[in-house]
Amino acid sequence: MAVEKILSFIKQKPDLMFAIILAFFVYCVFAFTNDYFMTHRTTFAIMERFAVLGLVGLALTLCIIAGEIDLSIGSNAALAAVIVVRFTDSLGAPTALLIAVAVSTIIGLIQGYFIAYLRIRAIVLTVGTLMLLRGISLFVAEEKTVMLTDFRIPDFITTKVLWYFSPASLTVIAMFVLVGLFMNFTKYGREIYAIGGARKEALAAGISLKRPMIIVFAISGFCAGLGGVIIGLRSGTAQALGLQYLLLAGTVAAFIGGVSILGGRGGVVGAVIGALTVNFLNTGLVFNVTPAFMVQLYLGILLLVVIMFQTGSVIFEKRQRRYQILKDIDNRRERLKKEMKGGAQP
Amino acid sequence: MSPISEPINQLPKPSILEKLIQRHSKLAITLLAIFIVVFVYGMVTAPNFLTLFNFKTIIRDAALVGIMAIGLTFVTLSGNFFLLSMKETAALCIIAFATGMASGWGFELSFLFTMVFALIAGISQGALIGIGGNPIVVTLGAAGVLYGLGAYWSDNLVVSYRRPHGAEWLGTGSFLGLPNITVAFILIAISAELLLRKTSFGRQVYLIGANRAAGRATGHENFWMAIKVCTIASVCSAFVAIAFSAQVSSAQVNYFSSEFGSSGDMTIMVIATVMVGGNSIMGGFGSTLRSSLGAVFISTVDNMMVLHGFNSGPRVFAVGLMIVFSIIVFAILRRGSRSEE
């Protein structure tokens, strides 16, 4: 009974199974090679990292489901981080946090609107906003590294609750649950899948491009902003030109989680597993004293392997389908021949 | 003139201005007008802007980004969007070149050694894109790999070599009063334009970019095209890396990252240049001449802002604004044409 259920689950979602196995494998490799990896403290550290990377992975997952990619995510996060760190001293943390997240969300919203209004690909616009937002964050930070003076807030954000969690990671988990429910059980969530998987058909069926696009990019901006806020408040400092690595790490997380570059596939559960995999890799490499550029190298290789795997499977499926059509045509021709012969002889 | 050849019910021919207003939305024209006003105002009020010396400076500043942008234009024209690994290719190549120079191989051998790396990087990325990988994602991954390799090779340290060395003529020499790097920029711009306009390869780039299905039907697969255009882009990156290394007689893997040059990230600057020039990102429309002019244009604005005494924040912001402006303007101007779908 149970085995059958599991088997049918595997058949339904091979991508997700692949992601789970990969995550488990990466975890095991580090757990066996490093004594400190499988401890409560490390798990806490992984969850802390998950708070940021999971958010970025989630944002990119949604964008890729909608068939687009948001390149400006690192800049958006950096802007939020700079704003929150700059204004915490004068306005207090909650207000600064609200302002930063609101600014990021509005930026995402505007991007979504323009992408839908101008009918351009998101990469085109987000490359522009990538630079624009860097400029704004340089402006806000006055080209310095901004710092907090009151370090009670970083302490609050990283307090341990329930063994493995902190206020930051609990917020992020709540965010994941909300977005997961939204994507699976609301009309708007299904619209996002529709414009990603089959845009022309979706538009022909009467879905407006604007609404799902604005929702996706607003959520993406919100996630980026929240991620930036968490990074900024946790470390107490923020740089306008920082956080460039988020795009690569988030994309790797999204693709491990099983999104397809063609859009319309993947989900929030995949994003969680993808982000966890990247976190295991990141944390494990840090434990083995690997320099940062080597982490980038491994992430790059991982991304290339995953994307090639996916491209290969797409090509394979296409070829299979073409063979199937040719076979059908052949069969029909044979049948017709037989029928004609059968009809001619008697 | 026979009366038959002339249609009787012909409407009066609209003037160019009327055509512009009829065809295009008011938003695009307003944006353009605002931009022109700001630009002219800045040009007139900036001190020492309208001098020959400053003009030479602008071209020289545009050269490095411009050469890379010319390389990237081929990729964009062929419908493969853009490569996010331009600066990382340059980073690996600058390390290769400096290592060669530091080992005393001389300029020619180091140059060839660097080009080998550029070819490997270009061909492998091109092959991955050619078999159907999404260019953005593939090059995002490749960027991590190339940068990691460069950093691993140099141990993240500065590789320096002593003056006088064989590459000095490229970095600091000049020809007829123009710096050699400017001359190289002009030569590369002309030859790239000729390559695009006058050879069958150039026409194939446009064909595949404009209509991939038609390209495949006429026997021009994107696989080989992707390899060729990625190689061109990589070689241009490598050339920029060599020229830059020759200027400073050293190399480090992060030379092309955030703080390089005028503003921001080198890869994004290059993509910005291609876009501001007005090339269609979907492929099939544009030219390398547009990219070269885009480079000069961005450099002009940057120069103007420096002369006005702006910090790097507003300058990065201005470049970003230029990209977004140009995206909006060109998207509206070309609305309805198939190349933007």
Short description:
Chain A is mostly helical and 346 residues long. Chain A has one domain (10-290).
Helix and strand arrangement:
The complex is a heterodimer of chains A (346) and B (341).
Chain A: H1 2-12, H2 14-33, H3 40-65, H4 73-91, H5 93-118, H6 122-141, E1 146-147, H7 152-157, H8 167-185, H9 187-197, H10 199-204, H11 210-235, E2 237-238, H12 245-256, H13 268-287, H14 292-344
Antiparallel strand pairs in A: 1-2
Helix pairs in contact in A: 2-13, 3-8, 3-11, 3-12, 3-13, 4-5, 4-6, 4-11, 5-6, 5-11, 8-9, 9-11, 12-13, 12-14
Chain B: H1 16-23, H2 26-45, H3 52-77, H4 86-102, H5 107-130, H6 135-154, E1 159-160, H7 168-172, E2 174-175, E3 178-179, H8 180-198, H9 200-210, H10 212-217, H11 222-248, E4 250-251, H12 266-276, H13 288-307, H14 312-333
Antiparallel strand pairs in B: 1-4, 2-3
Distance N terminus to C terminus of chain A? 56 Å
The main sheet of chain A orders its strands as 1-2
* Beta strand % of chain B: under 5%
Encode the helix/strand succession of chain B as letters: HHHHHHEHEEHHHHEHHH
Query: How much helix, percentage-wise, in residues of chain A?
Result: over 70%
SSE pattern of chain A, N- to C-terminal:
HHHHHHEHHHHHEHHH
Q: How many beta-strand elements of chain B?
A: 4
Outline the biggest β-sheet of chain B: 2 strands, antiparallel
Strand residues, percent of chain A:
under 5%
CATH class assignment of chain B: Mainly Alpha
Summarize the biggest pleated sheet of chain A. 2 strands, antiparallel
By DSSP (H or I, 4+ residues per run), the number of helices of chain B equals 14
* Mean pLDDT across every amino acid position of chain B: 82
Count the E strands of chain A: 2
Number of domains of chain A: 1
Identify low-pLDDT runs of chain B.
Answer: none
Q: Which class do the helix and strand fractions of chain A yield?
A: mainly alpha
Total separate domains of chain B? 1
Gross morphology of chain A is: globular
Mean pLDDT of chain A: 85
Task: Please mark out the parts of chain A with pLDDT under 50 across 5 or more consecutive residues, or reply none.
Answer: none
